Amino acid sequence: MLVLECPYCGVMADESDLHGGGEAHLKRFGPGSSDDDFETYLFMRKNPKGVHFERWRHVSGCGKWFHAARNTMTLEVYGTYSAQTYEPPQDIIDAVKAKHPEWEGYK
Amino acid sequence: MRRYSAFAIAREGVRYHQGWERAWKSPTPKKKYDVVIVGAGGHGLATAFYLGKNFGITNVAIIEKGWLGGGNTGRNTTIIRSNYLQDPSAAIYEKARSLYETMSQDLNYNVMFSPRGVMMLAQTHHEVRGYQRTAHANALQGVKTEFISPQKVKELVPIMNINGPRYPVLGALWQERAGTARHDAVAWGYARACSDMGMDIIQKCEVTGVDQADGKVTGVQTTLGDIACDKMAIVVAGNSGHLAEMSGFRLPMESVALQALVSEPIKPCMDVVVMANTVHGYMSQSDKGEMVIGGGTDAFNNYTQRGSFHHIEETVRALVETFPMVSRLKMLRQWGGIVDVTGDRSPIISKTPLGNTFINAGWGTGGFKSIPGSGWAMAELVAKGEPGPLAAEFGMNRFTEGRFIDESVAAGVAH
Amino acid sequence: MSTRLANGGRLIDRSKVKNFTFNGKKMKGFEGDTLASALLGEGQTLVGRSFKYHRPRGIIASGAEEPNALVNMGEGGRFEPNQRVTTTELFDGLTAGSQNHWPSLEFDVGVVNNYVARWLPAGFYYKTFMFPRAGWKHVFEPIVRQSAGLGKAPDAETFDADRYEHYYHHTDILVIGGGVAGLAAALAAAKSGKKVMLIEQTNHWGGRAPVDGGTIDGKSPTEWVDAAVAELDAMDNVTLRTRTMGAGVYDHGYVTGYERVADHTPGDGRPRHRLWRIRAGKIVTATGAIERPLSFAGNDIPGVMLAGAVRDYIVNWGVSAGDRVVVVTNNDDAYRTALAVKAAGLDVPAIIDARPNGGGALADAAREAGIRVENGKAIGMVKGGKSVTGVTLCAQQGEGGTLEEIKCDAVAMSGGWSPVVHLWSHCGGKLNWDEANAMFRPDASRPPLGAKGEGFVIPAGSADGEFDLGAVLENAVKAGLAAAGEGKMAAPKGEAEAEAPMTPVWIMPQGAGPKKRMKMWLDYQNDVKVSDVQLAAREGYESVEHTKRYTTLGMATDQGKISNINGLAVLSDALGQPIPSTGTTTFRPPYTPISMGSIAGEARAEIFQPIRRTPMHEWHEEAGAYMEPVGHWRRPYCYPKQGESHEDAVYREVLNTRENLGLLDASTLGKLIVRGPDAGKFMDMMYTNMMSNLAVGKCRYGLMCSENGFLSDDGVVARIDEDTWLCHTTSGGADRIHGWMEEWLQTEWWDWKVYVANVTEQLAQVAVVGPNARKVLEKLNAGVEGGMDLSAEALPFMQWRDGKIGEFDARAYRISFSGELSYEIAVPASQGRAFWDALIEAGEEFGVMPYGTECLHIMRAEKGFIMIGDETDGTVIPQDLGLNWAISKKKEDFLGKRAQLRSHMTDPERWKLVGLETLDGSVLPDGAYAQGEGVNENGQKVVIGRVTSTYYSPTLKKGIAMGLIKHGPDRMGEVISFPTVDGTNTVIKARICDPVFYDKDGEKQNV
């Protein structure tokens, strides 16, 4: 039963108050994109063993979507941050690197 | 291989069972195999078995990072059914179900296939229509199912409360020849048969890299050294994405935890398997007497084989509602497994971007019931290099084309 | 035979007698007894039968680890199988019965399995019962099932008479276990001022220390415990709970606590169990240790008990296991039992110590007390059937040749102690093998990791592998301080006799042959013996998980608490590898079984799930509506009159609505307001059609697709003002679509200036439908100043207006889902019921009747309108349904547009929507498939389409249907075949036709 801090309202929210939304920082491909790009956008997933960036919604709270950097092997949470960004903020990347110097980045 | 029988037990009993031989050998890996199968779970072992039995390919290694049958094969709720809606699903699950019927005899290992019947409860009008649709589809697919009345449901499952105040039972989709089997025995039976055919089952051996040349696989690097191969089959539920990454491609797939639990054993009280999808829970009684209970998946990527407790609560609540007597049983043990879920929640049995490399993955919550059918179809794909009819629709390319096999249509929203 | 001693028993109150029955026999115990101590006090040493061989079983332990003594308890709505007598508090009127035998406990037919046990080794069932093929299901499996299982199943028709509840609790520190270690850890942690919770599974504090003796800070353990509890109790930051077990440790510091509130006071009105859902910053596991049996032949005969338990029964409850108790051990602790037995005035014929050099100070004390001590010796076998009559003495190093036979009626055994590491391990804490004490103990360097990647479980005391009283207390204080992250406290000084080292003994005697090994029990409940584990190893089931599953070792209701270590030691020996290489099986929650009732909590029956009610909900119920669940709503399916079938009611409602006036409670329809300068742009992305150009005051039917292209919802959109749109969604779709809009606005187009509000529950909505619709509304408006003009000219079809209707603040939409003249009128939810009542009253002269969802369905089907969930199922795109007119060609982009360009989506072979009418006027079955020619490569009959909606049309007096058919729209007039599944093997022929069956030109709605 995870606990994630909602970066909007500051609440430490139980997983049962949240809705998981899958991989974060996907780039949307619409009309005009190639079949491969569109397939990648909709279906291909990193699904990493280890550091993962994902979307959550504080659905039974403030209703806001946010992002979390989390480890899928240990369930450690490196931090949560606004959903309104194209890439993880530096402090989150630093937090991950501090624990996993060998980490190759989120892309 | 010395055959198992009542006679063999009688003979061994006299000499305190000192004469039994190993069920499967524990060889050191050879330098090279025709086929390396990564993953000695039910699907990997079944693939190996049918490679040998149907195609005579026995220079095969099955590599397992842990112990054989230790993944989802040994963690599921053992349900076997084939009452699927879409043609490709019904075909492969029915193939699997029919192979389960004779598996004990085919393997000379009692996997305790028990065709005790599976029912899926309809508790909304929408579900009634959905299951009537499935019954019609199944009739044309050659899958024997029927839609039964609430009274018949009660006759078959006396412990059910069909008149609950919130979701009274309106009927059920009933598959009489569906049922359960002893999950570990399926893996062990296949392992014994594969070993007997001369295949090498190599446990505690983790694949750490995939060797390739000219766009084709040439071998695998493992914790026990490099092993060369002509073909590779990736059959590693819960780790498919990881192996795909080593092989240089991505999958339309995510790994999540699926939980199950058992009660303490009690005397027989339920002879069939019941699935209640409106309230999200399913239950059967094992031969040991435990009520075997399963629910839904967690909502996040997870490799820990642990789930979140609130899912257990939801599942148990659903079952107490459906079977009030469950309230006075006790939960003995809960556990989790990691399942791979694809974009349409149907499996992938497919060629891959890497030559001579094949993948069988993404069975989600339906893995155990499909084991023999999946192995049969995968063996054909590996042997011939092209999918046969059972696997034809399960290629990875379907996601590019938008050609999905969606079994979750019952989840199409109600008015 | 066991008996109640004349004196002693620190936990019982002999002045308070409690009456109970066992197998119908009246018995007595005292307040403070467990059912176990009471049964032993009454001389009941035989309490059940084992799982496989139906061997006689007696009580072996005194706590949660007990594998044998499980009973059916209670009656009727309070019946429960598999109650563990050692953890059941005695109460007046308790009824218990033994399990797993027929016809009686003393004479059990199933024991025949025991006589042929030699031919029923581990996994025998995998090797036989294979012929004939049908034999397994029809012959063998029923026999196996009937002889397996344990307690009776509760009665199917008797509902649980008890209630259950959940508590939430947040704490900085949770200490699990109320022995001296837990108390010391809690004291150390609580001094920091942080919030501490201490839970203890039994009803008393102190754990084993008061039984084991020694001194703490110069006081007796009991005195120290009392003082510690008093001190904790006085602290505001400390919560204390007895009868509360730490059941499971989950990720991020989540713990389930299982409080048995009223198990010992059934029917007193309190909840029976309370499940605590605790979120703790740090967890201290002071869960103690469990004693291991020794594996000697006949170690399962009733009367053979764990040494610690024998001592517990004497000291805690004044009950002796027997008059002549042989003690057999590989460690010093069991000597305490011998001394306790002696002190109780009973005989200890011998202490059999497997260690060549025997014990230390405690052994000296035993000798001083006049007890015979045999070093380097073992039990060759236990004599007796349903009870112990004696043991044979042999050399531990030999094969078991009898040196002497010793008469006794009980055996107290100790194979050493194993820390209770379950809670440490649930969430991934790792273990080390401690060679000296032959046990797994927590590896402090590899704890379970919490949300911040920090260890969040800290073991304390015996649970951390410390057994000397002084060391336990020091360790516990350290754990408590570590949990608090601050503070200093001197550990209480614990003093007890120093113990000589133990020696691991896994088989007794060392050289026992196969015959003896077949009588050495490891798992008492599941009947797994040393020989079974050795067989598994021989057959290649080398992984500890394979062996567990092949032999069922540790899979019984005790989950192997006393058997696992012995089992894996035997396995390691058979494999010739050290124990750490074998490893352990996975520890899974719960620590001991917890009631399903407690997990389900309060939410059952009427409050199983929340119910959503429209403002008119009660009216529907009073009107006798037959309701159907739609999400969490309850909607009227129809309103049957006295003696009317549902079917007849529906047809009446259809005809009446078409001919007179019908009212539908449409309040459940989703109502979302989309507002802002960029709302038009946003609406154009969400809907397939153009919404930005919808004129203020007008309505438009719209479609929404998933990004994967599939139709997901539909509804009428109204343009409210320049910046505002109101979107109607399906009833089931309101929350989903609201979430969907938020998701896009927050995560993709966050710079767009748009707000979305879900106002579904703010408004009550009524569909006023039928030729008299305008009349009834105008009647309400009669004489009302400023009443809304509802004429065709003032409010044309597909437009809306705000205004007064009667005394109500209304928004009227001229939209129709039935094909009739229709107004959908929204009023504030607070006015909903009054508005409905007013319509019913005013409508009387116009033939008003309410109608339900099924009538709605039929009327829309007659008009060929699609229904989300019927015509769509998540695999259907708008193009399949002939809705191309609602897909904008001008827009560059909308959700789903790209997806609908993929090859399979544009495939001309896709099934398309058409109408279907049977040749004989009958109704096509729901879900029927149309059969084509031949079979596919998998041998399945080819299908060319399917029915999506099918009804009897009371208006047209025949069956009508819609379906998705291959090349359907090009095949108008063709007849296709739908095989039935009703067992008649008939095929229904239907002609492909236009899906609009009624009022094709829409004249009726547009008046």
Produce the secondary structure layout.
The complex is a heterotrimer of chains A (107), B (415) and C (1007).
Chain A: E1 3-5, E2 12-14, E3 19-23, H1 35-42, E4 51-57, E5 65-71, E6 77-82, H2 90-99
Antiparallel strand pairs in A: 1-2, 3-4, 4-5, 5-6
Chain B: H1 6-14, E1 32-38, H2 42-55, E2 60-63, E3 79-80, H3 87-101, H4 103-107, E4 118-122, H5 125-141, E5 146-148, H6 150-156, E6 171-175, E7 179-180, H7 183-196, E8 200-202, E9 207-213, E10 216-222, E11 225-234, H8 240-247, E12 253-263, E13 273-276, E14 281-285, E15 291-301, H9 309-322, E16 330-342, E17 348-351, E18 357-361, H10 367-384, H11 398-401
Parallel strand pairs in B: 1-2, 1-11, 2-8, 4-13, 11-18
Antiparallel strand pairs in B: 3-7, 4-6, 5-6, 9-10, 10-11, 12-15, 12-16, 13-14, 14-15, 17-18
Chain C: E1 3-4, E2 13-22, E3 25-31, H1 35-41, E4 48-49, E5 56-57, E6 70-73, E7 80-84, E8 94-98, H2 112-115, H3 135-147, E9 164-176, H4 180-190, E10 196-199, H5 209-212, E11 215-216, H6 221-233, E12 238-241, E13 244-250, E14 254-260, E15 273-285, E16 289-291, E17 304-306, H7 307-317, E18 319-320, E19 325-329, H8 333-343, E20 351-353, H9 361-368, E21 373-375, E22 377-384, E23 388-395, E24 404-407, E25 410-414, E26 417-419, H10 422-426, E27 431-434, E28 439-442, E29 457-459, H11 469-484, E30 494-495, H12 514-517, E31 521-523, E32 528-529, H13 530-538, H14 544-551, H15 564-575, H16 579-582, E33 594-595, H17 596-600, H18 617-622, E34 626-630, E35 633-638, H19 646-659, E36 661-665, E37 670-675, H20 679-686, E38 699-705, E39 711-721, E40 724-729, H21 734-747, E41 755-758, E42 763-769, H22 773-781, E43 800-805, E44 808-813, E45 822-828, H23 829-843, E46 848-850, H24 853-862, E47 911-918, E48 929-935, E49 941-953, E50 958-966, E51 975-979, E52 987-993
